[in-house]
Amino acid sequence: MENQSKKEVMLERMKEKKQEVRVVRRIVFVIALILLLIIGIAGFRAYHFVSAALKPVDPDSEKVIDITVPIGSNLDSISELLEENGLVKDARVYKYYVKFNNQAEFQAGNYGLQPSMTLDEITESLKTGKVYREPLFTITFPEGLTIEEIAERVIAKKTKYTAEEFLAKMKDKEYIEELMAEHPELLKEDILDEDVRYPLEGYLYPATYPFYEEDPSMTLIVEQMLDATESNVMQYKAVLDDMEKSPHWLLTFASLLEEEATAQSDRQTIASVFYNRLEKDMPLQTDPTVIYAMGEHKKRLFNKDYEFEHPYSTYQNKGLPPGPIASPGLASIQAVIDPAKTDYEYFLADSTGKNHFAKTYEEHLKNKEKHIGN
Protein backbone atom coordinates (compact mmCIF):
# COMPACT_ATOMS: atom_id res chain seq x y z
CA MET A 1 0.00 0.00 0.00
CA GLU A 2 2.79 2.33 0.94
CA ASN A 3 4.62 1.69 -2.37
CA GLN A 4 1.39 2.26 -4.32
CA SER A 5 0.87 5.53 -2.45
CA LYS A 6 4.37 6.69 -3.41
CA LYS A 7 3.73 5.86 -7.05
CA GLU A 8 0.52 7.82 -7.01
CA VAL A 9 2.33 10.82 -5.52
CA MET A 10 5.07 10.61 -8.16
CA LEU A 11 2.49 10.31 -10.94
CA GLU A 12 0.65 13.31 -9.55
CA ARG A 13 3.85 15.33 -9.46
CA MET A 14 4.68 14.37 -13.04
CA LYS A 15 1.22 15.47 -14.14
CA GLU A 16 1.71 18.78 -12.36
CA LYS A 17 5.08 19.31 -14.02
CA LYS A 18 3.62 18.51 -17.43
CA GLN A 19 0.85 20.97 -16.74
CA GLU A 20 3.40 23.64 -15.74
CA VAL A 21 5.40 23.00 -18.93
CA ARG A 22 2.22 23.40 -21.00
CA VAL A 23 1.43 26.67 -19.22
CA VAL A 24 4.99 28.00 -19.72
CA ARG A 25 4.89 27.04 -23.40
CA ARG A 26 1.60 28.83 -23.83
CA ILE A 27 2.97 31.93 -22.09
CA VAL A 28 6.12 31.88 -24.26
CA PHE A 29 3.98 31.40 -27.36
CA VAL A 30 1.71 34.32 -26.44
CA ILE A 31 4.69 36.59 -25.64
CA ALA A 32 6.39 35.64 -28.91
CA LEU A 33 3.17 36.29 -30.80
CA ILE A 34 2.76 39.68 -29.13
CA LEU A 35 6.39 40.60 -29.93
CA LEU A 36 5.92 39.57 -33.55
CA LEU A 37 2.77 41.67 -33.74
CA ILE A 38 4.57 44.67 -32.20
CA ILE A 39 7.50 44.27 -34.60
CA GLY A 40 5.11 43.86 -37.51
CA ILE A 41 3.09 46.93 -36.56
CA ALA A 42 6.28 48.96 -35.95
CA GLY A 43 7.69 47.78 -39.28
CA PHE A 44 4.47 48.62 -41.09
CA ARG A 45 4.37 52.08 -39.50
CA ALA A 46 8.04 52.67 -40.29
CA TYR A 47 7.51 51.58 -43.89
CA HIS A 48 4.44 53.77 -44.20
CA PHE A 49 6.30 56.73 -42.62
CA VAL A 50 9.34 56.42 -44.90
CA SER A 51 7.20 55.83 -48.00
CA ALA A 52 5.18 58.95 -47.25
CA ALA A 53 8.36 60.98 -46.55
CA LEU A 54 9.78 60.00 -49.94
CA LYS A 55 6.84 61.56 -51.76
CA PRO A 56 6.36 65.28 -52.57
CA VAL A 57 4.96 67.33 -49.69
CA ASP A 58 2.09 68.60 -51.85
CA PRO A 59 1.93 67.18 -55.42
CA ASP A 60 -0.67 69.76 -56.52
CA SER A 61 1.05 72.85 -55.13
CA GLU A 62 2.16 75.60 -57.52
CA LYS A 63 3.69 77.69 -54.74
CA VAL A 64 7.36 78.69 -55.08
CA ILE A 65 9.34 78.86 -51.84
CA ASP A 66 12.56 80.88 -51.81
CA ILE A 67 15.34 79.42 -49.72
CA THR A 68 18.99 80.35 -49.30
CA VAL A 69 21.64 77.66 -48.92
CA PRO A 70 24.54 79.40 -47.13
CA ILE A 71 28.11 78.90 -48.28
CA GLY A 72 29.69 75.96 -46.49
CA SER A 73 26.37 74.25 -45.66
CA ASN A 74 26.51 70.51 -44.99
CA LEU A 75 23.90 67.83 -45.69
CA ASP A 76 22.45 67.99 -42.17
CA SER A 77 21.82 71.73 -42.27
CA ILE A 78 20.43 71.59 -45.84
CA SER A 79 18.04 68.74 -44.91
CA GLU A 80 16.77 70.70 -41.90
CA LEU A 81 16.40 73.83 -44.05
CA LEU A 82 14.23 71.93 -46.54
CA GLU A 83 12.01 70.49 -43.81
CA GLU A 84 11.64 73.88 -42.06
CA ASN A 85 10.44 75.38 -45.33
CA GLY A 86 7.96 72.60 -46.08
CA LEU A 87 9.86 71.22 -49.06
CA VAL A 88 10.48 67.73 -47.65
CA LYS A 89 8.43 65.87 -45.08
CA ASP A 90 11.31 64.66 -42.92
CA ALA A 91 14.90 65.91 -42.81
CA ARG A 92 16.30 62.57 -41.64
CA VAL A 93 14.63 60.61 -44.43
CA TYR A 94 15.88 63.10 -47.02
CA LYS A 95 19.43 62.96 -45.62
CA TYR A 96 19.54 59.14 -45.79
CA TYR A 97 17.92 59.20 -49.23
CA VAL A 98 20.70 61.46 -50.52
CA LYS A 99 23.40 59.30 -48.92
CA PHE A 100 21.85 56.09 -50.26
CA ASN A 101 21.87 57.53 -53.78
CA ASN A 102 25.46 58.82 -53.42
CA GLN A 103 24.46 62.39 -54.13
CA ALA A 104 26.62 65.25 -52.85
CA GLU A 105 28.32 68.51 -53.80
CA PHE A 106 25.34 70.78 -53.24
CA GLN A 107 25.86 74.39 -54.29
CA ALA A 108 25.23 77.44 -52.16
CA GLY A 109 22.79 80.03 -53.45
CA ASN A 110 19.18 81.14 -53.59
CA TYR A 111 16.64 78.62 -54.88
CA GLY A 112 12.97 78.76 -55.78
CA LEU A 113 11.68 75.28 -54.94
CA GLN A 114 8.14 73.90 -54.83
CA PRO A 115 6.41 71.49 -52.41
CA SER A 116 5.28 69.56 -55.49
CA MET A 117 8.87 68.65 -56.42
CA THR A 118 10.12 65.09 -55.93
CA LEU A 119 13.22 64.42 -53.83
CA ASP A 120 15.13 63.73 -57.06
CA GLU A 121 14.10 67.10 -58.50
CA ILE A 122 15.07 68.96 -55.32
CA THR A 123 18.40 67.16 -55.17
CA GLU A 124 19.18 67.86 -58.83
CA SER A 125 18.39 71.56 -58.36
CA LEU A 126 20.72 71.81 -55.38
CA LYS A 127 23.47 69.98 -57.27
CA THR A 128 23.30 71.99 -60.48
CA GLY A 129 22.95 75.32 -58.72
CA LYS A 130 19.98 76.43 -60.80
CA VAL A 131 18.96 79.46 -58.80
CA TYR A 132 15.55 81.04 -58.82
CA ARG A 133 16.99 84.55 -59.05
CA GLU A 134 20.42 85.87 -59.92
CA PRO A 135 22.30 87.99 -57.36
CA LEU A 136 22.59 91.70 -58.11
CA PHE A 137 26.23 91.59 -57.05
CA THR A 138 28.72 89.63 -54.96
CA ILE A 139 31.27 90.62 -52.34
CA THR A 140 34.48 88.67 -51.81
CA PHE A 141 36.13 88.54 -48.40
CA PRO A 142 39.65 87.11 -48.80
CA GLU A 143 41.10 84.66 -46.30
CA GLY A 144 43.41 85.90 -43.56
CA LEU A 145 41.97 89.40 -43.09
CA THR A 146 41.48 90.95 -39.67
CA ILE A 147 38.25 92.74 -38.87
CA GLU A 148 40.01 96.09 -39.32
CA GLU A 149 41.27 95.00 -42.75
CA ILE A 150 37.78 93.75 -43.67
CA ALA A 151 36.43 97.18 -42.71
CA GLU A 152 39.03 99.07 -44.75
CA ARG A 153 39.52 96.83 -47.79
CA VAL A 154 36.03 95.40 -48.31
CA ILE A 155 33.23 97.12 -46.40
CA ALA A 156 34.35 100.68 -47.13
CA LYS A 157 34.92 99.91 -50.82
CA LYS A 158 32.05 97.55 -51.63
CA THR A 159 29.17 98.83 -49.47
CA LYS A 160 27.60 102.11 -48.42
CA TYR A 161 29.12 101.82 -44.95
CA THR A 162 32.35 103.39 -43.75
CA ALA A 163 35.09 101.42 -42.04
CA GLU A 164 34.38 103.37 -38.84
CA GLU A 165 30.68 102.40 -38.90
CA PHE A 166 31.53 98.74 -39.39
CA LEU A 167 34.12 98.72 -36.59
CA ALA A 168 31.67 100.44 -34.25
CA LYS A 169 29.16 97.67 -34.99
CA MET A 170 31.82 95.07 -34.25
CA LYS A 171 32.22 96.55 -30.77
CA ASP A 172 28.51 97.02 -30.10
CA LYS A 173 28.00 94.75 -27.07
CA GLU A 174 24.21 94.70 -27.42
CA TYR A 175 24.49 93.56 -31.04
CA ILE A 176 27.09 90.94 -30.15
CA GLU A 177 24.82 89.54 -27.43
CA GLU A 178 21.95 89.32 -29.93
CA LEU A 179 24.18 87.30 -32.24
CA MET A 180 25.24 85.07 -29.34
CA ALA A 181 21.58 84.30 -28.67
CA GLU A 182 21.06 83.42 -32.36
CA HIS A 183 24.23 81.29 -32.57
CA PRO A 184 24.56 79.70 -29.11
CA GLU A 185 26.66 76.75 -30.32
CA LEU A 186 29.19 78.94 -32.10
CA LEU A 187 29.39 82.17 -30.11
CA LYS A 188 30.28 81.47 -26.50
CA GLU A 189 31.18 83.71 -23.57
CA ASP A 190 34.88 83.51 -24.44
CA ILE A 191 34.39 86.04 -27.25
CA LEU A 192 33.57 88.63 -24.56
CA ASP A 193 36.87 88.14 -22.71
CA GLU A 194 38.31 91.53 -21.77
CA ASP A 195 41.53 90.74 -23.67
CA VAL A 196 39.70 89.99 -26.95
CA ARG A 197 40.02 92.98 -29.28
CA TYR A 198 36.92 92.27 -31.40
CA PRO A 199 34.40 89.61 -30.30
CA LEU A 200 33.77 88.53 -33.92
CA GLU A 201 37.42 88.49 -34.97
CA GLY A 202 37.95 85.23 -36.85
CA TYR A 203 34.22 84.49 -37.00
CA LEU A 204 33.52 86.25 -40.32
CA TYR A 205 34.04 83.47 -42.83
CA PRO A 206 36.14 84.37 -45.90
CA ALA A 207 34.24 83.62 -49.11
CA THR A 208 32.32 85.23 -51.98
CA TYR A 209 28.77 86.12 -50.97
CA PRO A 210 25.80 86.80 -53.27
CA PHE A 211 23.46 89.71 -52.51
CA TYR A 212 19.99 90.27 -53.89
CA GLU A 213 19.45 93.82 -52.68
CA GLU A 214 21.15 96.96 -53.94
CA ASP A 215 22.03 98.06 -50.41
CA PRO A 216 22.22 95.04 -48.11
CA SER A 217 22.16 95.91 -44.41
CA MET A 218 25.28 95.53 -42.35
CA THR A 219 23.55 92.93 -40.22
CA LEU A 220 22.69 90.86 -43.31
CA ILE A 221 26.33 90.91 -44.41
CA VAL A 222 27.59 89.90 -40.98
CA GLU A 223 24.97 87.21 -40.45
CA GLN A 224 25.68 85.57 -43.82
CA MET A 225 29.34 85.35 -42.85
CA LEU A 226 28.48 83.97 -39.42
CA ASP A 227 26.18 81.36 -40.96
CA ALA A 228 29.03 80.19 -43.19
CA THR A 229 31.41 79.99 -40.22
CA GLU A 230 28.85 78.01 -38.24
CA SER A 231 28.37 75.53 -41.12
CA ASN A 232 32.11 74.99 -41.51
CA VAL A 233 32.99 74.84 -37.82
CA MET A 234 30.08 72.93 -36.34
CA GLN A 235 30.59 70.00 -38.73
CA TYR A 236 33.50 69.22 -36.38
CA LYS A 237 31.46 69.53 -33.19
CA ALA A 238 31.81 65.84 -32.30
CA VAL A 239 35.58 66.03 -32.80
CA LEU A 240 35.83 69.18 -30.68
CA ASP A 241 33.72 67.55 -27.96
CA ASP A 242 36.09 64.55 -27.93
CA MET A 243 39.05 66.93 -27.70
CA GLU A 244 37.22 68.97 -25.04
CA LYS A 245 37.84 72.09 -27.13
CA SER A 246 35.58 74.95 -28.18
CA PRO A 247 34.86 76.59 -31.55
CA HIS A 248 36.73 79.64 -30.22
CA TRP A 249 39.81 77.50 -29.61
CA LEU A 250 39.54 76.02 -33.11
CA LEU A 251 39.21 79.39 -34.85
CA THR A 252 42.02 80.89 -32.78
CA PHE A 253 44.37 78.03 -33.65
CA ALA A 254 43.29 78.08 -37.30
CA SER A 255 43.88 81.83 -37.56
CA LEU A 256 47.55 81.32 -36.66
CA LEU A 257 47.90 78.78 -39.47
CA GLU A 258 46.12 81.13 -41.88
CA GLU A 259 48.69 83.84 -41.18
CA GLU A 260 51.73 81.56 -41.20
CA ALA A 261 51.12 79.15 -44.08
CA THR A 262 50.51 79.21 -47.80
CA ALA A 263 50.17 75.59 -48.94
CA GLN A 264 47.81 73.05 -47.34
CA SER A 265 50.76 70.78 -46.51
CA ASP A 266 52.42 73.67 -44.67
CA ARG A 267 49.26 74.29 -42.65
CA GLN A 268 49.17 70.70 -41.45
CA THR A 269 52.88 70.65 -40.65
CA ILE A 270 52.79 74.00 -38.85
CA ALA A 271 49.78 72.72 -36.92
CA SER A 272 51.92 69.78 -35.78
CA VAL A 273 54.65 72.20 -34.65
CA PHE A 274 52.17 74.18 -32.59
CA TYR A 275 50.68 71.01 -31.09
CA ASN A 276 54.17 69.78 -30.17
CA ARG A 277 55.08 73.10 -28.55
CA LEU A 278 51.81 73.27 -26.64
CA GLU A 279 52.32 69.73 -25.38
CA LYS A 280 55.77 70.65 -24.06
CA ASP A 281 54.53 73.95 -22.57
CA MET A 282 56.71 75.94 -24.97
CA PRO A 283 55.59 79.38 -26.20
CA LEU A 284 54.31 79.26 -29.78
CA GLN A 285 56.44 82.27 -30.78
CA THR A 286 54.57 83.06 -33.98
CA ASP A 287 55.27 86.50 -35.46
CA PRO A 288 51.73 87.28 -36.68
CA THR A 289 50.53 87.41 -33.06
CA VAL A 290 53.09 90.13 -32.31
CA ILE A 291 52.00 92.11 -35.36
CA TYR A 292 48.37 91.76 -34.32
CA ALA A 293 49.22 92.76 -30.74
CA MET A 294 51.03 95.89 -31.93
CA GLY A 295 48.13 96.82 -34.21
CA GLU A 296 50.47 97.85 -37.00
CA HIS A 297 51.05 96.56 -40.53
CA LYS A 298 54.72 95.57 -40.27
CA LYS A 299 56.61 93.60 -42.91
CA ARG A 300 59.46 92.84 -40.53
CA LEU A 301 59.86 92.53 -36.79
CA PHE A 302 62.90 93.63 -34.82
CA ASN A 303 64.24 92.28 -31.53
CA LYS A 304 62.52 95.03 -29.53
CA ASP A 305 59.18 94.04 -31.08
CA TYR A 306 59.40 90.55 -29.59
CA GLU A 307 59.66 92.16 -26.15
CA PHE A 308 56.36 94.00 -26.65
CA GLU A 309 54.08 92.90 -23.81
CA HIS A 310 50.52 92.17 -24.81
CA PRO A 311 48.01 89.31 -24.20
CA TYR A 312 48.12 88.40 -27.92
CA SER A 313 51.91 88.05 -28.12
CA THR A 314 52.88 84.39 -28.18
CA TYR A 315 56.44 85.40 -27.40
CA GLN A 316 55.42 86.93 -24.08
CA ASN A 317 52.69 84.38 -23.26
CA LYS A 318 52.41 80.61 -23.50
CA GLY A 319 49.47 78.94 -25.21
CA LEU A 320 47.11 80.38 -27.77
CA PRO A 321 46.26 84.10 -27.81
CA PRO A 322 42.90 85.22 -26.29
CA GLY A 323 41.18 84.95 -29.67
CA PRO A 324 41.66 84.66 -33.44
CA ILE A 325 43.98 87.14 -35.13
CA ALA A 326 42.33 86.87 -38.58
CA SER A 327 39.56 85.04 -40.46
CA PRO A 328 40.75 81.49 -41.25
CA GLY A 329 39.55 79.53 -44.27
CA LEU A 330 38.44 75.91 -44.32
CA ALA A 331 41.94 74.60 -45.14
CA SER A 332 43.32 76.05 -41.92
CA ILE A 333 40.38 74.79 -39.89
CA GLN A 334 40.86 71.29 -41.30
CA ALA A 335 44.60 71.41 -40.56
CA VAL A 336 43.88 71.96 -36.86
CA ILE A 337 41.48 69.00 -36.88
CA ASP A 338 43.83 66.78 -38.91
CA PRO A 339 47.45 67.92 -38.40
CA ALA A 340 50.51 66.17 -39.77
CA LYS A 341 52.33 63.78 -37.43
CA THR A 342 55.84 65.15 -36.93
CA ASP A 343 58.49 65.77 -34.27
CA TYR A 344 59.10 69.33 -35.50
CA GLU A 345 59.25 72.09 -32.90
CA TYR A 346 60.57 74.95 -35.04
CA PHE A 347 60.01 76.49 -38.45
CA LEU A 348 60.85 79.63 -40.36
CA ALA A 349 59.99 81.13 -43.73
CA ASP A 350 62.62 82.24 -46.25
CA SER A 351 62.37 85.27 -48.53
CA THR A 352 60.22 83.34 -51.00
CA GLY A 353 57.72 82.35 -48.31
CA LYS A 354 58.81 78.71 -48.21
CA ASN A 355 58.80 77.20 -44.74
CA HIS A 356 61.70 75.19 -43.32
CA PHE A 357 61.12 72.88 -40.35
CA ALA A 358 63.44 71.60 -37.63
CA LYS A 359 63.22 69.14 -34.74
CA THR A 360 65.81 70.87 -32.55
CA TYR A 361 66.88 74.43 -31.86
CA GLU A 362 70.33 73.67 -33.32
CA GLU A 363 68.73 72.57 -36.60
CA HIS A 364 66.56 75.68 -36.51
CA LEU A 365 69.63 77.91 -36.18
CA LYS A 366 71.24 76.17 -39.15
CA ASN A 367 68.06 76.76 -41.20
CA LYS A 368 68.11 80.39 -40.15
CA GLU A 369 71.74 80.83 -41.19
CA LYS A 370 71.18 79.03 -44.49
CA HIS A 371 67.87 80.57 -45.56
CA ILE A 372 67.78 83.97 -43.87
CA GLY A 373 71.32 84.89 -42.84
CA ASN A 374 72.15 87.45 -40.18
Automatic annotation (TrEMBL):
Record site feature (Important for catalytic activity), residues? E260
Using the record, list the residue span of the signal peptide; answer none if the entry has no such feature: none
The record lists the organism as Planococcus shixiaomingii
Q: Spell out where the chain crosses the membrane.
A: 23-47
Tell me how this protein sits in the membrane. Answer: Single-pass membrane protein
Please describe what this protein does: Functions as a peptidoglycan terminase that cleaves nascent peptidoglycan strands endolytically to terminate their elongation.
What keywords does the record list, in alphabetical order?
Answer: Cell membrane, Cell wall biogenesis/degradation, Lyase, Membrane, Transmembrane, Transmembrane helix
Q: Which reaction does it catalyse?
A: a peptidoglycan chain = a peptidoglycan chain with N-acetyl-1,6-anhydromuramyl-[peptide] at the reducing end + a peptidoglycan chain with N-acetylglucosamine at the non-reducing end
> What is the phylogenetic placement of the source species in the record?
Bacteria, Bacillati, Bacillota, Bacilli, Bacillales
Q: Where in the cell is it found?
A: Cell membrane
The protein here is known as: Endolytic murein transglycosylase
The gene behind this protein is mltG
